[in-house]
Write a structure and sequence with these properties.
about 130 residues; alpha+beta; 2,3-Dihydroxybiphenyl 1,2-Dioxygenase, domain 1; 8-stranded mixed β-sheet
């Protein structure tokens, strides 16, 4: 891989299971992960679409949330991002098997960085 590749999009939705069913039925995507909060993750085999379950008690509105790049190595990119005047990427918390780092662009839009991609090995190896 010679340059970062866009491999992940995330949308906050009001009914994640319904939206996952829609994308699987209408576009042939496959659901490969469900979070305890009901968020669903689907893929076309290349791009991972996170359908994040909206929480009325949360502070994140429904709609676009973030995107993610698969990169050869996070450390050198973190250095160049920091030199460009944005905060250095930070490790993401949680137990998901993807999206190791979170970063922001100059306007504060979130994006993830991953060295191993956005699909679990069981899906990525197919």
């Amino acid at each position: 891989m010679s340059r970062p590749r866009l491999r992940h999009l995330a949308i906050v939705v009001r009914d994640a299971p319904r939206m996952a069913e829609f994308y699987c039925t209408q576009f042939g995507m496959e659901q490969f992960h469900t979070d305890p909060d009901g968020s669903c993750f689907v893929t076309d085999g290349y791009l991972n679409l996170a359908l994040i379950q909206h929480q009325l008690t949360g502070d994140v509105p429904a709609g676009f949330n973030h995107f993610g790049f698969e990169v050869p190595a996070v450390a050198p990119l973190a250095d160049t991002l920091e030199a460009a005047g944005v905060p250095r990427p930070v490790l993401r918390g949680g137990d998901r098997p993807f999206a190791e780092y979170r970063a922001v662009d100059p306007e504060g839009n979130w994006f993830d960085l991953s060295e191993h991609g956005f699909l679990p090995p069981s899906v990525a190896d197919r």
